[in-house]
Amino acid sequence: MTKPSVSYEDGLKKDLTDPEEAAAYLNAALEDGSQDVFLLALRDVAEARGIAHLARTTSLNRENMDRILSEKGDPQLSSLKALLDSLDLRLAVEVKREGRILLGQGRD
User: Fold this and answer.
1) Cβ proximity of 58 and 82 under 8 Å
2) What's the pLDDT score for residue 65?
């Protein structure tokens, strides 16, 4: 008897309920550089946690959540922050470490 397989989508959604996995998934989507890819990844994370639940825990209603997470979504920073906060995630900015000289450094 063969073991039943788990669909990719079901496995992904299960993994994305873990905040560490969700953060890594969203960071990988950000590295792609496409807003569309990031918003699709954010939608995957939101669906894994339950969009209706997230709408209740944020100041955003279900219609706003759907609009933010659509392929053509263009969320405001405040909406994105509220959504990420409800996912136990936050925005962060890092310094690029690709050999650039910072202003005021590396000059005589």
Assistant:
1) yes
2) 85
